[in-house]
Amino acid sequence: MSERVDLLVHGGDVLTVDDAGTLVREGAVAVRDGTIVEVGGAGELRARYAADTAVDAGGCLVLPGLVNAHTHLAMTLLRGRADDVTLQGFLERVLRWEAELLSPGTVGAAVRVAVAESVRAGVTSALDMYWFHEAAERVAREAGWRLLTGPTFMDVPDSPDGRAYGERMAWARRDLAGRTGAREGIRPVLFAHSAYTLAPEQLTEIAALAREFGALLHLHAAENATEVATVEVRYGKRPVELLDSLGLLGPDVLLAHAVDLTGREIAALARTGTSVAHCPVSNLKLGCGIAPVPRLLGAGVTVALGTDGAVSSNTLDVLGAVRQAALVHKADGDPTAVGAEQAARMATAEGARALGLGDRLGSLEAGKRADLIVLELGRPHLRPRHDVWSTLAYAAQSADVRDTVVDGRVLMRNRVLTTLDEEAALADLEALAPSPVQPGGRP
Ligand SMILES: [Zn+2]
């Protein structure tokens, strides 16, 4: 007598990304109520379980869904509008456009396209720092996608949501207090933009609020030398040094970028259990530099991967970030720096760990949430397949993702999105997107 499950993904090689890096050849994953019930051999699991939905993954690779640990999803609205500029030039333009363009409606439309792009790219969860997070959350919920977001603090004169800085603490407290009974595999988050857009006392009160509610605190830090110099001139300390001196680093803190770090700052991150979201594509494109990831890993810091927003990295392609992470650190002459497996883990198990959700997400193991993807391996660029980590990090492309499952629900099957009207989402965004580039110039 077979046991009922909601979903059985069977026949493909299952790369579990558990601690041992177990690969189950011709394996299967059984899912009930959004939770992985069992991972094992396909023959065995087919005999044991009767599934409402069966996905034949024969000839494919099944792996945990990818985690985007730092992004600004709604920036799809501005994709391609601020290329080949410095971080500071980028911020100056983007902040102006955001003040003009953003509303819950534009954010919702832009996030819908971002979710479609992400599901297609095998990304099953993201940490999203942006204005009007409620609109993003609504869209993600409708699509069945895993979004971690919450109130953002940034002390700028024309905040796009029209909320003065003074009102934000009470608003954020209400938001966190209302998050009872949240979906499994989601946790509350507070976003403090950075040490150059918030004063030390503001950072301190935001961190205290995050700690009061057990929320993850996410900040940009040490993205480039100019940022570090700005903070140093104002407060006499470099950004990570400042956060450490204020007692704001810790295991519930995730820093985006962490490019410009001293050895002492790396040691502080390790000592406090602070994690880093590495965004190699954004860092390269904005000319920020290359984060000292081999040194961070050597010190024992948890390193996740992020794409950053679609203006600074132009796509939300986490697999592309895996490849970049596995390549860019070799530029100094050491081809052993950040190997294929390490890079792929940053986008899965380590990404989940950095979000404080390592026990719920990031690997395919019984008891964890069923966030998984099926990668088709039939195309020439993936053959022959000698090493599965190598295939993932150096050869696979996000377009190879065939099926995407979040919380046991199939959001993309055979490359068709099942919970999102992609055409309508694109049409809505096109209708809202700023005027097209004039021939011979930028808008
Ligand atoms: Zn960012």
TrEMBL record:
UniProt cross-references to Gene3D superfamilies, sorted A to Z: Metal-dependent hydrolases (3.20.20.140), Urease, subunit C, domain 1 (2.30.40.10)
Organism of derivation: Streptomyces caeni
Amidohydrolase-related domain ranges (all copies): 61-410
Keyword terms: Hydrolase, Metal-binding, Zinc
Keyword Lyase annotated: no
Pfam assignment, any one: HUTI_composite_bact
Domain (Aminodeoxyfutalosine deaminase/Imidazolonepropionase-like composite): residue spans on this chain: 27-49
PANTHER family membership: AMIDOHYDROLASE-RELATED DOMAIN-CONTAINING PROTEIN (PTHR43794:SF11), AMINOHYDROLASE SSNA-RELATED (PTHR43794)
Record lineage: Bacteria, Bacillati, Actinomycetota, Actinomycetes, Kitasatosporales
Protein name: Amidohydrolase
Cross-referenced InterPro entries: Amidohydro-rel, Metal-dep_hydrolase_composite, Metal_Hydrolase, MQNX/HUTI_composite_N, MTA/SAH_deaminase
